[in-house]
Amino acid sequence: MNMHFDFNNPTHLVFGTGTLNELGRQIAAMRAEGALSKKTLLLISNGRSVKTYGTLDRVQAQLKKANTEYVVCSCIHENPSKEAVMEAAAAAKEHHCDFITALGGGAVLDAAVAVSAMATNPGDLWDYVNGGTGKGKPLIHPGLPIVTIATSSGTGSEINCWGVISNHQTNEKIGFGFPSLAPVLAIVDPTLMTTVPPRYTAYQGFDALFHNTEVMISKGVNIVSETLALSAIEKIAKYLPRAVANGRDLEAREAVAYGSTIAGITMQLTSTTAQHSMEHAMSAYHHDLPHGAGLIMISAAFARFFIERHACDEQFIKMAKVMGMPEADKPEDFITALLQLQKDCGVHDLKMSDYGFDKAEAMTLARNARETMGGLFLANPCPMSDEECAAIFDESYR
Description:
Blueprint: E1 12-15, H1 23-32, E2 39-45, H2 49-52, H3 55-65, E3 69-76, H4 82-94, E4 99-104, H5 106-118, E5 146-150, E6 162-167, E7 172-177, E8 185-188, H6 198-217, H7 223-245, H8 250-269, H9 274-285, H10 291-308, H11 313-322, H12 332-344, H13 362-373, H14 386-396
Helix pairs in contact: 1-3, 4-5, 6-7, 6-8, 6-10, 7-8, 9-10, 9-13, 10-12, 10-14, 11-12, 13-14
């Protein structure tokens, strides 16, 4: 086991049922310390959920309690685009906002990182993106401070400095971030997640699961990331079916939220693998594909690639054991546990063809995955060629 790790996270995390009620007090305290100022861009999605279920009203009341002015910006959509980021950043500049308050699921939390950077820096977001056609420039100015309020359990973006943004003009979906863009405050209140529909509960939960399973098989896994990842995998595997079946099961929601937020930490300790690069390529070309759904579609074939090569047998066995197979003794047991969990959550029958994929796209997707987020291929436990990557897409196609 690798005993070397490097961890630095400045985010103040407030986790648990009812913690949204802490928002006003926390912001007021941070302002007194000079960490936050007086006006925020309240970033939300272009959907209706935070308005319909009263979450936006509750957040606005907490901001008022902290004597904080706010401007609502509701331009963020699923698989957030460069254009939406630039629009939100322009709003922050126009209204002289001092910090970002991101209220929403993974799309909003991801976008907040990029909005923070572009609210204070010149040019276009792609000037600062590494990979693909990004120019890879360093930030000239620090971004605006970020406060995150998670309304779903999937990305872990509430507690790290990374977000994934799409460039529709170039068919690229690339991770963007700098350590200086880590949120200063994160509120994770599972009561805000009880209204997420069953299908999306499953998609988001599997995203969180795969963040942790990829950390487990990554070449960089260490004693801390493995310990945390296994605890998260165990919670998600046990409680995600319950959260899907009954969204108001707070015990299940809290457990899945734990697994998601912990993934935000494990991903800082250890990189994920090419499974995420591959899915980003999928939704870069097919914008309506939910990220978690894409990950589910390729998950069994992706794991099987490494199992057939005996790249990290013991890691797969460890995961199978915490996923409900305590007697697991072979790496293939992980796939058995994974497929059972997908059946239990009602997402075992997803088809790439339902989202407009053609089997002939496999090599295009493989090359895009490496060109845009090739760094994650380096974390794989053994090499994977473009041809082998394309074969995983072929095997997954239905």
